[in-house]
Amino acid sequence: MSPQVIGTAGDFFVSSSGSLAWTIGETIVETYKQGEGYFTQGFHQPSFLTVTEVADQSEFGIFPYPNPTTQSLNLKITQAGNYKLELYDLTGIKLMSFEVSVDEPTESHRIDLQPYAPALYLLRVTKLNSGESFGFRIERL
C-alpha cells in the first residue's frame, strides 16, 4: 500500500541536497494526544525509527562497505541466518526493503544506491529469528 493524498495542489522534488514534498488543501489534518500516545493525520507523516542502543556492530558481524559510497553498498554479514534489510531516507520514508538468507558467513550482499540522490541514509538490518535490529548511517556521494 502506497500513501495517497487528495489535495488541491502538491508536488515532490528530489535534488542532490535532499527532497521536498508538499500539498495544499488536505481536508482533514489534526493531532490528538492521549496519555503518552499521539495520533496525527495528514499525508506527510514519516515512519519512526526508534534507536534504543548504539552498540559496536562489529560484535554482531555486520559490516557495510564502502561507506561513504558513490553507487553501491556491500553488506558483509558474518553470522548465518535470515535478515531483513531496510533503507530509509532521513525523513523516515522507507526506500527499499528485502530479505536475505546468509548460509556462508563470507557472503556479501550488494545494495544498489545509484537510483538515489547523494545524501545520508539509514540502513536497518534485522535478524529475523531474534528480532534484533542494527542501524547504520550510510552516505551516498
Written account of the structure:
This protein has 141 residues and is mainly beta. It has two domains: 9-40, no CATH class; 57-140, Macroglobulin (MG2) domain (Immunoglobulin-like). Helices cover 0% and strands 51% of the residues. The protein is built from no helices and eleven strands. It has strands at 9-15, 18-24, 31-34, 37-40, 62-65, 72-77, 81-89, 94-102, 108-112, 119-127, 133-140. The chain has a four-stranded antiparallel β-sheet with strand order 8-7-10-11, with no helix packed on it. The protein has a three-stranded antiparallel β-sheet with strand order 5-6-9, with no helix packed on it. It is globular and about 55 Å long.
List the SSEs and their pairings.
Blueprint: E1 9-15, E2 18-24, E3 31-34, E4 37-40, E5 62-65, E6 72-77, E7 81-89, E8 94-102, E9 108-112, E10 119-127, E11 133-140
Antiparallel strand pairs: 1-2, 3-4, 5-6, 6-9, 7-8, 7-10, 10-11
Oligomer: single chain
DSSP strand count = 11
What's the architecture of the largest domain in CATH terms?
Sandwich
The H-level CATH homologous superfamily of the largest domain, spelled out, is: Macroglobulin (MG2) domain
Could you name the CATH topology of the largest domain?
Immunoglobulin-like
Outline the biggest β-sheet: 4 strands, antiparallel
Order of helices and strands: EEEEEEEEEEE
Q: What is the class of the largest domain in the CATH system?
A: Mainly Beta
Helix content: under 10%
Termini separation: 30 Å
The geometry reads as globular
